[in-house]
């Protein structure tokens, strides 16, 4: 199986106070959005790279060098507030890590050590509100995990246990509103064991995730985005190939996802 490089840019508006980013595949970059600046971290060319770029959302033009990720890593979880971006977990030279790093979005420079998660794993998904960065799921020793960790974005320090997902999985995705986080899809073991489960939880409290419903197609490595009312899940790898399906849910309710339409091409 081959994975294509992808960059996710997260551009919040003034009305949206939740920013999300999650693992897409082995070669994904991370994106954080401030109120005026978007920052892209890492990615893949012929090798993994530690480059950080930024650009100003209100203008057009090429990206500018921001700095470097202190440790080159892949399949980490990203998220952030309007002022600080956080990246956690992932693989470093093929080994699981529990490291957390951060940047100040409106400055430039390399990432700085934030602390460590409760458990080292990769293929995790990340979600953030203005106050908390949350790391979900992942894989360690080729075993799917249901762990949810969190940190307070404005401080530094080690992650704390938040609760558990309803189903252990890796390569899920996440989105949500300021009051509800959603984790969807992934896989629980081998490439054929895709998951259609959607979980939800309240990011400002602690506790286990609750079943929300199901995706229309079980898949891993899908992308997610949200407004304060609707979550969208696009693309991914189903049981046999890349998919072009796009689903949506209403964040404040529960129930199965509904077909939204199709991407222009099937991809993860």
Describe the model.
With 268 residues, the protein is an all-beta fold. The protein has a domain of 171 residues: Neuraminidase (6 Propeller). Helix content is 0%, strand content 43%. The strands form 7 sheets. A 5-stranded antiparallel β-sheet has the order 1-12-13-16-17, with no helix packed on it. The chain has a 4-stranded antiparallel β-sheet with strand order 2-3-4-5, with no helix packed on it. It is globular. The N and C termini lie close together (12 Å).
What's the layout of helices and strands?
Blueprint: E1 19-22, E2 30-33, E3 37-44, E4 48-56, E5 64-68, E6 77-80, E7 84-88, E8 91-92, E9 95-96, E10 99-104, E11 112-116, E12 125-128, E13 132-136, E14 139-140, E15 143-144, E16 147-152, E17 160-164, E18 173-176, E19 181-184, E20 197-201, E21 210-214, E22 223-226, E23 230-234, E24 245-250, E25 258-262
Antiparallel strand pairs: 1-12, 2-3, 3-4, 4-5, 6-7, 7-10, 8-9, 10-11, 12-13, 13-16, 14-15, 16-17, 18-19, 19-20, 20-21, 22-23, 23-24, 24-25
Shape: globular
Helicity range = under 10%
SS field, number of helical segments: 0
Q: Using only CA atoms, what is the Rg?
A: 16 Å
Question: Which class of secondary structure composition applies to the elements?
Answer: mainly beta
SSE succession: EEEEEEEEEEEEEEEEEEEEEEEEE
Low-pLDDT residue intervals, each spanning 5 or more residues: 1-28
User: Count of DSSP E strands?
Assistant: 25
> In which order are the strands of the major sheet placed?
1-12-13-16-17
Q: What is the top-level CATH class of the domain at 19-176 and 200-212?
A: Mainly Beta
């Amino acid at each position: 199986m081959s994975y294509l490089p992808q960059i996710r840019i997260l551009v919040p508006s003034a009305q949206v106070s939740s920013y999300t980013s999650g693992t897409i595949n082995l070669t994904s970059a991370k994106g954080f959005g401030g109120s005026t600046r978007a920052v892209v971290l890492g990615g893949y060319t012929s090798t993994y790279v530690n480059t950080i770029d930024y650009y100003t959302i209100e203008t057009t033009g090429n990206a500018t060098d921001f700095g470097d990720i202190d440790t080159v890593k892949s399949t980490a979880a990203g998220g952030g507030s309007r002022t600080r971006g956080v990246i956690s977990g992932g693989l470093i030279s093929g080994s699981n890590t529990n490291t957390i790093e951060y940047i100040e979005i409106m400055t430039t420079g390399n990432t700085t050590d934030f602390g460590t998660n409760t458990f080292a794993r990769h293929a995790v998904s990340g979600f953030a509100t203005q106050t908390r960065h949350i790391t979900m799921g992942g894989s360690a020793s080729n075993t799917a995990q249901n762990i949810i960790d969190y940190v307070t974005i404005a401080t530094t320090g080690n992650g704390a246990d938040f609760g558990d997902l309803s189903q252990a999985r890796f390569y899920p995705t996440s989105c949500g509103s300021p009051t509800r986080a959603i984790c969807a899809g992934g896989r629980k073991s081998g490439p054929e064991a895709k998951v259609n489960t959607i979980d939800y939880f309240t990011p400002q409290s602690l506790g286990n995730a609750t079943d929300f419903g199901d995706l229309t197609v079980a898949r891993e490595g899908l992308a997610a985005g949200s407004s304060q009312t609707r979550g969208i899940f696009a693309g991914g790898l189903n049981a046999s190939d890349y998919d072009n399906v796009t689903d949506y849910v209403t964040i404040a309710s529960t129930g199965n996802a509904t077909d939204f339409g199709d991407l222009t091409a099937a991809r993860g």
